[in-house]
């Protein structure tokens, strides 16, 4: 299903495929040979999404464009089922596996792999050809790789990367109540979305 959202509508190449149960919303460009499979959500919340050629977004994956952090994909990228790819730049030939998460401001170099349930944190730069092992965390610029049991070391790097500002546009002193009131208003704007006829 295609939706106009926030005054913008998707542009889907005639050689691309959007499955009937997928959602593509707002300022989204999908290149030739690309496939958005069942249950996937590709939503340009407040920043554009550009998907290159021969990109496959598998079932129930979520891709978001964010203010200041559009989601840009090169060619020949695989986004696995249940992956979450949010406001980042993804080079060509990248593999993002099942359940992986890539956060706003991240840059994934050409040919890199983000394996099952791995995480690439906000404002992290992963070099070309790098591999984030299963369930590991990449954090920092340049990325450092940590196993998930090394929380204190991950946090020592992550706390300098402005997660709250990058993801929510909020200041360091924002409370959860502040953040959620803002988020509720922001997502409430979807009341005016319009389904486009194919």
TrEMBL record:
Key words, A-Z: Transferase
Xref: SUPFAM superfamilies: Trimeric LpxA-like enzymes
Keyword Transferase: yes
Transferase is among the record's keywords: yes
Gene3D superfamilies: Hexapeptide repeat proteins
Signal peptide per UniProt: none
InterPro entries: Transf_Hexapept/Carb_Anhydrase, Trimer_LpxA-like_sf
Domain of life per record: Bacteria
Entry's Gene Ontology molecular function annotations: transferase activity
Name under which the protein is recorded: Carbonic anhydrase or acetyltransferase, isoleucine patch superfamily
Species of provenance: Agreia pratensis
